[in-house]
UniProtKB/TrEMBL annotation, chain A:
Identification of the protein by name: Uncharacterized protein
Alphabetized UniProt keyword annotations: Cell inner membrane, Cell membrane, Membrane, Transmembrane, Transmembrane helix, Transport
Matches recorded under PANTHER family: INNER MEMBRANE PROTEIN YEDE, SULPHUR TRANSPORT DOMAIN-CONTAINING PROTEIN
Localization terms from the record: Cell inner membrane
Membrane topology: Multi-pass membrane protein
Species per Swiss-Prot/TrEMBL record: Shimia litoralis
Residue spans crossing the bilayer: 80-102, 122-139, 159-180
Family matches, as Pfam families: Sulf_transp (PF04143)
Family stated for the protein in its record: Belongs to the TsuA/YedE (TC 9.B.102) family.
GO cellular component: plasma membrane
TrEMBL record, chain B:
One Pfam entry name: Sulf_transp
Domain of life: Bacteria
Protein known as: Uncharacterized protein
Keywords: Membrane, Transmembrane, Transmembrane helix
Spans traversing the lipid bilayer: 43-65, 72-89, 109-127, 162-180
C-alpha cells in the first residue's frame, strides 16, 4: 500500500522545501564516496592528510578536488550530509516497521523480479550488484543522483538537473521495458 | 544543531520515500516501464510543490537564497545520467532509495549498496581521465539556473526573473502530475494494490 500521489507528492515536496529552508538541498550519492574514503583512510592512513594550515587534502585527485571538501568530510564523518543519509535509513526502517514490515518473499526477491525471472536470487544479486556499480559510477560522473540532480536540481530550475533527467529517463525507460515484460 | 537537523530532515525524507513506494523496486520498475505512473505523478507533484514553496519563500524573504545549491552542467552529466538510468531500471534502485530499501529489510538492496561503493571507488580512480577529457567542463556557464534568481550566486541562462520562472515551472510540474494518466501501457494492478 502506498500513499495517494496527491498526498505523497505534497509531503515529499514539503520535505525537499524543508531541507532548503533549514540547511541545503538534499543529495545522497556523494556519501558513497565519503564512506569509501573513510574505509580507504583506515586501510591506508596516507589517503587523507592535513596540510600545515589545517586544510584537508588527499592523495586521490577526486577527494582532493574543490579544496579537499570530500577529504574533509571523510575525516569528519559526523557532518550534516553523512548523518543525513544514516538518518534516511533510520526513517525508512521505522516507517517500514510501523506498517508491519515487508513480507519475507519481498525481502528475498521483489515481486516484479519473481514474475519475470522466477526464483533466481543469485541472478538477481548479480544484476543488482552490477547495477549498483554503474548507478554510482554514473552518479559521480554526473555529479549527483536522482535526489540531488533530478529532484533538488529541477526544483531549483538548474540546467544540469534537466540534462541529467533527460539522460536518466532516455536509458531507464527502454531498459525497464526490455527487462521486465511482466508487471509482477 | 546542524546534526540535529540532519537527523530530523533525513529521517523524514527516508520515511516519506518508503511511504510513497519509492523504496520498492516493484513501483520503480512499473513507473520506468511506463506501466503505472502513480509514482511519477507523486515525484512530479513533489518537484512542483518544492519549487513553488522555495521560490515563493525567497520572494517573501523567508527562504535564504544562499541556501540554493546548483550543480554544474557538462556533457558528463548526460553520460552519467544514461549510466544511472540503465542501472536504476535494471535494479529498481537509485542511491537514495537503495539505502532506504536496505534499511527496510530488502536483501538485494544491500547488494546494490556494495556494488555502489565499488562503483564510486572506481570513479575516484578514473576521475583524472574524465577531468582531462574535457567532458567535465561547464556548458552554457556551468552552474546556471534557467532564469536569473535575484540575490543568488548563480548566473541565469535567460535574463528573466528566476524566482517567477521557478514558480511558473513549479506550476507546470504540478499540472503535468495531474494530467498524466496512471497507466500508459497495458493493464494490471491499480495503484492501490498492495505488492
Amino acid at each position: 500500500m502506498v500513499l495517494n500521489w496527491k498526498f505523497g507528492g505534497v509531503l515529499l515536496g514539503f520535505v525537499f522545501f524543508l531541507a532548503v529552508v533549514l540547511v541545503k538541498p538534499i543529495g545522497v550519492s556523494t556519501q558513497f564516496v565519503i564512506l569509501d574514503a573513510i574505509v580507504g583512510d583506515v586501510v591506508n592512513a596516507e589517503l587523507i592528510t592535513q596540510n600545515d594550515d589545517g586544510a584537508y587534502t588527499s592523495s586521490n585527485a577526486y577527494l582532493a578536488k574543490s579544496k579537499g571538501k570530500y577529504a574533509k568530510s571523510a575525516a569528519n564523518p559526523l557532518n550534516y550530509s553523512f548523518v543525513f543519509v544514516l538518518a534516511m535509513m533510520v526513517g525508512a526502517f521505522l516507517s517500514s516497521m510501523a506498517k508491519g514490515g515487508i513480507s519475507s518473499e519481498e525481502r528475498n526477491l521483489p515481486a516484479i523480479w519473481y514474475a519475470n525471472y522466477g526464483d533466481t536470487p543469485i541472478k538477481r544479486y548479480a544484476v543488482v550488484f552490477l547495477s549498483g556499480f554503474i548507478v554510482l559510477y554514473g552518479a559521480r560522473l554526473a555529479g549527483g543522483c536522482t535526489s540531488g540532480h533530478m529532484m533538488s536540481g529541477m526544483m531549483q530550475t538548474s540546467l544540469s538537473g534537466y540534462i541529467f533527467a533527460a539522460g536518466a529517463f532516455a536509458a531507464a525507460v527502454p531498459v525497464a521495458m526490455m527487462m521486465y515484460k511482466k508487471e509482477g | 544543531m546542524e546534526i540535529l537537523l540532519a537527523i530530523v530532515v533525513g529521517a523524514a525524507f527516508g520515511a516519506t520515500l518508503d511511504r510513497i513506494g519509492a523504496t520498492s523496486p516493484n513501483w520503480i520498475i512499473r513507473m520506468l516501464s511506463l506501466r503505472n505512473l502513480h509514482l511519477m505523478k507523486t515525484i512530479l507533484l513533489a518537484i512542483g510543490t518544492g519549487s513553488i514553496l522555495m521560490f515563493a519563500g525567497q520572494m517573501a524573504g523567508i527562504v535564504d537564497v544562499m541556501h540554493m545549491s546548483v550543480k554544474s552542467a557538462y556533457v558528463g552529466v548526460f553520460i552519467g545520467g544514461l549510466l544511472l538510468g540503465g542501472g536504476w531500471a535494471a535494479s529498481g534502485y537509485c542511491p537514495g532509495t537503495g539505502v532506504c530499501a536496505a534499511a527496510s529489510g530488502r536483501k538485494d538492496a544491500w547488494v546494490f549498496i556494495a556494488g555502489g561503493l565499488l562503483g564510486a571507488a572506481a570513479y575516484m580512480m578514473t576521475y583524472p581521465s574524465w577531468k582531462s577529457s574535457g567532458l567535465l567542463d561547464g556548458l552554457a556557464g556551468g552552474k546556471v539556473t534557467l532564469g536569473t534568481v535575484p540575490g543568488a550566486k548563480y548566473d541565469g541562462l535567460m535574463a528573466m526573473s528566476g524566482d517567477v520562472l521557478g514558480i511558473v515551472l513549479g506550476g507546470v510540474f504540478v499540472l503535468v502530475a495531474f494530467l498524466l494518466p496512471e497507466r500508459l501501457v497495458g493493464n494490471g494492478p491499480e495503484a492501490v494494490a498492495a505488492e
